[in-house]
Design a protein that fits this description.
This protein has helices spanning about 1-60, 60-65, 80-95, 100-120, 130-140, 145-160, 165-170, 175-180, 185-290, 295-320, 325-330, 330-345, 365-380, 420-430, and strands spanning about 350-355, 390-395, 400-405, 435, 440-450, 465. It contains 14 helices and six strands. A six-stranded mixed sheet has the order 4-5-3-2-1-6, covered by helices on one side.
């Protein structure tokens, strides 16, 4: 539906554009017709007047002609020549378009001057050139104030010429005096031709004005439509900016929450693991202190080492949130060292089996594997009071399985605490899963997809640390 609407909108835009081009082309053609028609009328009237003067001269009736007029007429040959010359100057001015507001005003003033002179030469008997000036003014003058002013001036000039007001101030010979030279029948024909040409010019002027008004109305509608689309686009952009800002705020808040949770998990895993070992070791020391002082000293040294390692891990977690031991050695050795330290500090029997290679994981995967094993052992000792723990890592197809089981007291009603919750969050980051249950102790099973794919059999190895 959206594509259909876009297609329809595009078709309407294309159709409007084509209509606009057609109307503009039509108005240009009509304006050319107006210019040619005015040229024909001016040439017709001035030739008629010149022919009348030549006739009076040849028939020796010039004296009678002069008795009917108040001023001497110009030389007959000058009438069409000067009129056509003035009209040619008008045509040149009409070709000027992009002149600026003041330039267009000066152009309109010059056109009015030339138009007045042509009307003067025809005895103020023709006002068609004023209509031509009016059409040009309506087409190119922009701005309602300037257009109204110039339209009023041109209209006033047209009315003054058409009502013969100027003939009172300027002594001119009207066309009717020149027509007296011809016979009555010829006069009727000549006047009829003049009226037809004058009416045709007025009709062409009206057609041009209709086309011009339609074109300008279409332009206004197009501008209004573009303004509406622009407003809609601005509103959509504003809404998009609001959504983007909201998304940015939510992203920042989510990132902060993830970072807080991650930091909380790291501190919990690090301190929880170290403190569990220390507490369990100290409890063992209280039992051995009287019976075996030397063994107690060895136990305290192991506890001190766990404490130092815990401090190092805390500092490292705060800096990079990655176990310090993973920075110094590979995952296999880090797991082995962590379990050795826990054995020595707690006297808990930890059996470790690794049935796959552990040197192909990325840092985030190593962090999760290490923390899952570490947290599972810590929970088994802290909450389960276990003295035997079995850790097994193996690969099943493209899935790494971690299983940690103990012989502790278990739990009939498992309540997911901080440690289990963080293990699930860590595993979910790698699209993994966590399962736990209490049966003859407590068992934790984690599944992690292997991103590096299936390894060769010979690359797998089994490690049994006892």
């Amino acid at each position: 539906m959206k594509n259909l609407a876009l297609t329809a909108g595009s078709s309407r835009t294309k159709g409007n554009g084509e209509n606009k081009v057609d109307e503009s082309r039509s108005s240009s053609y009509v304006f050319v017709i107006m210019k040619n028609l005015n040229f024909i009328i001016i040439l017709y009237l001035t030739t008629l007047m010149a022919h009348s003067l030549y006739g009076h001269i040849q028939e020796n009736t010039a004296q009678d002609f002069l008795s009917f007029i108040d001023s001497l007429p110009v030389a007959p040959w000058k009438l069409p020549v000067v009129a056509v010359g003035l009209y040619g100057c008008m045509l040149l001015l009409l070709e000027l378009q992009e002149l600026g507001r003041m330039g267009m005003v000066l152009k309109a003033a010059a056109l009015l001057l030339f138009g007045f002179c042509i009307s003067y030469l025809t005895g103020f008997s023709y006002t068609g050139v004023i209509l031509l000036i009016f059409a040009d003014t309506m087409q190119y003058i922009r701005g309602s104030k300037w257009r109204f002013t110039l339209t009023a001036v041109v209209g006033a000039v047209y009315l003054l010429i058409d009502s013969n007001v100027f003939s009172v101030s300027y002594k001119v010979t009207p066309l009717s005096v020149y027509l007296e030279y011809y016979k009555k029948d010829a006069q009727s024909v000549l006047i009829g031709v003049r009226n037809v040409l004058d009416s045709l010019n007025f009709v062409v002027f009206l057609v041009y004005m209709v086309l011009l008004i339609r074109m300008q109305m279409g332009e206004k509608e197009r501008i209004l439509s573009l303004n509406e689309k622009l407003n809609e686009a601005n509103e959509e952009l504003r809404q998009a900016n609001c959504r983007l800002e909201q998304y940015a705020r939510e992203s920042v808040e989510a990132a902060e929450t993830r970072e807080r949770n991650r930091l909380a998990m790291e501190i919990h895993d690090t301190l929880g693991h170290a403190l569990t070992g220390i507490i369990t070791g100290i409890e063992a020391c209280t039992v051995l202190m009287d019976a075996a002082p030397e063994a107690t000293k060895v136990q305290l040294k192991a506890i001190a080492e766990v404490a130092r390692q815990g401090v190092t891990d805390v500092r490292r977690s705060i800096k990079a949130l990655r176990p310090d031991v993973l920075e110094k050695m590979d995952l296999e050795k880090a797991l082995t060292q962590m379990m050795d330290e826990m054995r020595s500090s707690t006297n808990v029997e930890i059996q470790y089996e690794c049935r796959t290679g552990l040197r192909v994981f990325n840092e985030d995967e190593e962090n999760v594997i290490y923390r899952v094993v570490q947290e599972s052992i810590t929970n088994a000792i802290r909450h389960g009071r276990a003295d035997k723990i079995r850790v097994c890592l193996e690969r099943e197809y493209n899935m790494l399985s971690i299983r940690v089981e103990d012989n502790g007291r278990g739990c009939s009603d498992i309540q997911k605490g901080f440690g289990l919750h963080h293990m699930e969050e860590r595993l979910s980051m790698l699209q993994g899963s966590l399962r736990y249950f209490s049966e003859n102790g407590f068992t934790v099973e984690a599944q992690i997809p292997i991103r590096w794919g299936a390894e060769e059999k010979e690359n797998d190895q089994t490690v049994d640390c006892g």
